[in-house]
Write a structure and sequence with these properties.
about 120 residues, mainly alpha
Length: about 120
């Protein structure tokens, strides 16, 4: 069973994920932690019938707002990437239709070689 206390940090440090996905996991984890802290403070307020420290509450809500904004910006950048990937898929389909199997294999081999050299 996965240790729920360490699942997000483990996923965020995975080298298999792109940087933006790792950052998104970190942001989701931080947002969840702040929401949990606010909820816990509210339950304590109800139990003890004492007010929440307004300065702490303001800092927590501000941090939450900034994290949510950064998350939204990351998601907005991702939509451009999906469009670019769809364009690449269409371009590959067109090129594949126009070339025979041997030429296509040669193109793939060259592309793999360039990727390995880091020519992109």
């Amino acid at each position: 069973m996965t240790d729920l206390n360490h699942a997000a940090p483990a996923a965020a440090t995975s080298t298999a994920l792109p940087d933006d996905k790792r950052r998104l996991i970190e942001l989701d984890d931080a947002i969840a932690k702040i929401r949990t802290q606010i909820a816990t403070a509210d339950l304590a307020r109800q139990r003890d019938q004492k007010p929440i420290d307004p300065d702490w509450f303001h800092r927590a809500r501000t941090a939450l707002r900034h994290l949510c904004r950064e998350r939204a910006e990351l998601l907005a950048q991702g939509t451009g990437r999906r469009r670019r990937e769809k364009l690449k898929d269409v371009l590959i389909a067109i090129l594949r239709e126009r070339h025979d199997a041997n030429t296509w294999e040669a193109l793939l081999a060259e592309a793999r070689a360039r990727r390995e050299r880091g020519d992109l």
